[in-house]
Design brief:
Layout lengths: L1 H18 L21 E13 L2 E12 L2 H20 L6 E13 L1 E3 L5 E3 L6 E14 L5 H10 L4 E2 L3 E3 L4 H25 L3 E9 L23 E2 L19 E5 L10 E5 L3 E15 L1
Parallel strand pairs: 1-10
Antiparallel strand pairs: 1-13, 2-6, 2-7, 2-8, 3-6, 4-5, 9-13, 11-12
Length: 291
């Protein structure tokens, strides 16, 4: 009885070892094919892209103060950013977010050498003053308030400001819709390829949202990932309404800033136009083939 049981276990283990496909080895001459290639198939890559208006903006402002002590310089820099900090925080974290950091740098006593060159005493007992830089990093999450944010920054008279940069943060609806379009594009390409080869599409064997399954080159050696196909342009604005349509692209934003104590003639008008940016998605769909 024990011998029969042991023999059965050995046979079962041998059958399992034969059934399992060993992993591919880099540099091997022959590699195992995926399970879905045991019969004629067509692996189709769907690649789409669409243009959406950027919905995030970011800018940086810096304020500097020089005082005899680090504490005095920090307090002076904090006073400079107090008004703009309150104005931006009052908008709400869902519309604008603010990050404030302080950096302190000692300013040493300077003197001239016999050749007239200006030198610094790099010693802790020769510090004359401290320079504190307050850096504000502002992220505008609702471009409807970008004008107010930009005006508040310029009106605070910072030491320096960065250019306003824009980026696209697509929502979940846009991501899901674009992936659906990528699957549709893969199906369209598969039908055209099958028809051109005189075959018919069978059932779906695999759907890979990452698109990597279609890039595995089992003929030349695995893994081998090459470039994708040319993307198909799709129009996000023309999609079927699954939810309330998004608001139209914001118009050019005209920000007006006036220096403290200045007159109306001192106002600064700047046009800030959010750009359109590309958003893409890939999908791999494997079909069976019938002659």
């Amino acid at each position: 009885m024990l011998r029969s049981l042991a023999a059965a276990l050995v046979l079962s283990a041998s059958a399992a070892a034969v059934a399992q496909v060993p992993p591919a080895q880099l540099g091997a001459r022959y590699v195992p094919a995926p399970w879905w290639m045991q019969e004629p198939v067509i692996a189709s890559i769907g690649e789409v892209r669409t243009e959406l208006v950027a919905n995030r903006a970011q800018l940086t402002a810096q304020f500097q103060s020089v005082e005899r002590t680090a504490a005095e310089a920090t307090a002076a820099a904090a006073r400079k950013v107090r008004d703009i900090d309150a104005a931006i925080r009052a908008l709400g974290a869902d519309k604008a977010r603010l990050e404030t950091t302080f950096a302190t740098r000692p300013l040493y006593e300077q003197y001239r050498d016999k050749d007239g060159r200006i030198l610094e005493n790099q010693r802790s007992d020769q510090v004359e003053r401290y320079e504190v830089s307050a850096t504000l990093r502002i992220e505008v999450r609702d471009l409807a308030v970008l004008e107010r944010v930009y005006t508040a920054v310029q009106d605070a008279r910072p030491t320096s400001t960065s250019a306003v940069s824009f980026r696209l943060e697509p929502d979940n609806e846009a991501k899901s819709w674009l992936f659906t379009e990528a699957v549709k594009d893969a199906a369209r390409r598969a039908r055209l390829a099958a028809a051109a080869a005189g075959a018919q599409l069978g059932g779906v064997k695999l759907i890979d949202p990452t698109g990597r399954a279609c890039e595995t080159d089992v003929l030349a050696g695995w893994p081998s990932y090459g470039g994708g196909t040319l993307p198909t342009d799709v129009d996000y604005a023309a999609r079927p309404a699954m939810a309330p349509p998004p608001p139209p692209p914001p118009p050019a934003i005209v920000a007006t800033a006036r220096a403290r104590g200045g007159s109306a003639e001192d106002s600064i008008q700047t046009t800030l136009q959010p750009p359109r940016q590309w958003l893409g998605a890939d999908a791999c769909v494997v079909y069976g083939l019938r002659n």
